[in-house]
Structure formats: structure tokens, C-alpha cells
Design goal:
The protein has 4 helices and 13 strands. It is an alpha+beta fold. The strands form 4 sheets. The chain has a 4-stranded antiparallel beta sheet. A hairpin with a 6-residue loop joins strand 10 and strand 11.
Length: about 250
């Protein structure tokens, strides 16, 4: 770990986080995200005139001394841009569009506005195709309504509305659970938990979006075919042995 030191530069801004960001960028050649800077400040590794400051928005003055005691060379790298193509569109009509969300990106904007998200990438795709905002009051991107989401590290289908007139109907379908969601997972069982002579497994699962857990029993066969699991509509256990009984856990995001 190396400590960075510098002096407040008025041209950079009047906030502590802006100054720390510029200091790190100057030393590493890579500008960290605002979320990363916020975490550093809250962690107490930033000093202003020799004193620890934990307020990212703290006002600074020209000539103030800054120091950062952190391994800045190992900070998260800047977010890579997302560019969707027509191949990512699974279904589309004049009211709806369903997209294939890749893992590693959030569904919608986060506190860190520099982090790309699926929603804005989808708007950019529609704009590149020639879609225009629905009315003069709209800003520079086509409208897309958000009715559900997948966690950042989860891939899958995300449905957006393209027209505000269908928001109520689509919202009601989700609220009434008339839209079916299916989650897939592969579960690996610890060999130390295996007992011979059985063909079932109990899996502890955190149900997505509920904060609740459930234990699901599933049968497998010796040919390692994927077998359906309920009640959370998970599917896909591939056993590593032909006959076993054991338990394991898997966290499914969505």
C-alpha cells in the first residue's frame, strides 16, 4: 500500500471527493468511479490537512493538503461501456421490448451514474435505430418503462414498455403474478455430504426478491438429466454421482 499526497486544485472542484478522484487519477492514469471514491472516504483512509474526513461532499479550499492511504493501484477499474445490438432483442412490438440481459450489469441506473446499465443501453439502441422521444416534453432518449429487474450478476430476460399507455396493464400483470418467472441454477453437492443408496437431494435456496429461504427436495437419476425443482421454479440439478443423498445451498439472484 502506498500513500498519495497532494494539494487541493481549485480548477477540479470544491468537494473533497472530486479532489480525491483527481489525485488518484493523476497517480494511476485511471479515473475511479464516484462510488469507489465515496467508499474510500467513508472508510477513513482520506485525510484533509492531517485529519481524517468521512464526508465525501466536504468543502475544500485552495492550498488544503490531501492524503489517501490506500492501495490505489488495485482499485476497481472504470466501467466498460455497454452496447446492445439487435441480436440482444428477444421480442419487440410497438408497446413492448424484451432484452437478453448479460451478467455483470445492473438493470437500471444506480447511485453511481458512471456505471452503465441495461435501461440506458436499451434506450441508446432504440435511438440508434431512429426511435424518437414520444413527445416534446421528453428528453433526448426514447421512453422505456421499467417494471421488474434482475440483479447485476444475473443474466436473463428483462421486459420494458415502450409506450406509457400500457404501463398500467403490464404493472397489473406483475402485481397479480400472472407473468411467470423461471430461474435456472446448477447445484454442486459437497462429496462429504453424500450417502450411498439414495437418489434425492435437499437444497437450501434463497428465493429471489423475497428475502425468504426454502428447502427444496429434488430427485435425480443416474443419467444426470436435468430435473425440475419446485416451488420456486428453479430447474437443473446435474449430479456428480449416480446415487447419492446430500444437502447444499445455492443463492439465486433475480
Amino acid at each position: 500500500m502506498r500513500s498519495l499526497e497532494g494539494v487541493v486544485q481549485p480548477a477540479v472542484g470544491e468537494r473533497l471527493d472530486d479532489q480525491v478522484r483527481a489525485l488518484i487519477a493523476g497517480a494511476t492514469g485511471s479515473e475511479p468511479s464516484r462510488a469507489t471514491i465515496r467508499r474510500l472516504v467513508l472508510a477513513g483512509v482520506v485525510r484533509l490537512n492531517g485529519r481524517v474526513v468521512r464526508q465525501p461532499a466536504r468543502a475544500v479550499r485552495s492550498g488544503d493538503r490531501l492524503s489517501v492511504a490506500a492501495d490505489v493501484d488495485r482499485l476497481p477499474q472504470p466501467h466498460r461501456p455497454i452496447q446492445l445490438t439487435d441480436a440482444d432483442v428477444l421480442y419487440e412490438d410497438e408497446w413492448l421490448v424484451a432484452l437478453d440481459k448479460p451478467a455483470g450489469i445492473p438493470t437500471h441506473a444506480t447511485v453511481d451514474r458512471s456505471r452503465p446499465d441495461l435501461h440506458r443501453a436499451a434506450q441508446a439502441l432504440l435511438l440508434a435505430r431512429g426511435a424518437r422521444p414520444p413527445d416534446e416534453a421528453a428528453r433526448d432518449l426514447p421512453y422505456l418503462g421499467i417494471h421488474h429487474r434482475l440483479d447485476r450478476d444475473t443474466s436473463g430476460v428483462v421486459l420494458f414498455t415502450k409506450d406509457r399507455s400500457v404501463n398500467a396493464q403490464i404493472g397489473a400483470l406483475f402485481a397479480e403474478r400472472r407473468i411467470e418467472k423461471t430461474y435456472l441454477a446448477v447445484v454442486t453437492v459437497d462429496r462429504s455430504l453424500i450417502a450411498p443408496g439414495s437418489s434425492s437431494i435437499a437444497v437450501g435456496v434463497r428465493l429471489p426478491g423475497t428475502g425468504r429461504s426454502a428447502t427444496i427436495s429434488a430427485e435425480w437419476d443416474a443419467r444426470a438429466r436435468p430435473l425440475a425443482m419446485g416451488p420456486s421454479e428453479l430447474a437443473g440439478i446435474w449430479p456428480s454421482r449416480s446415487s447419492a443423498r446430500g444437502s447444499g445451498s445455492v443463492e439465486i439472484s433475480g
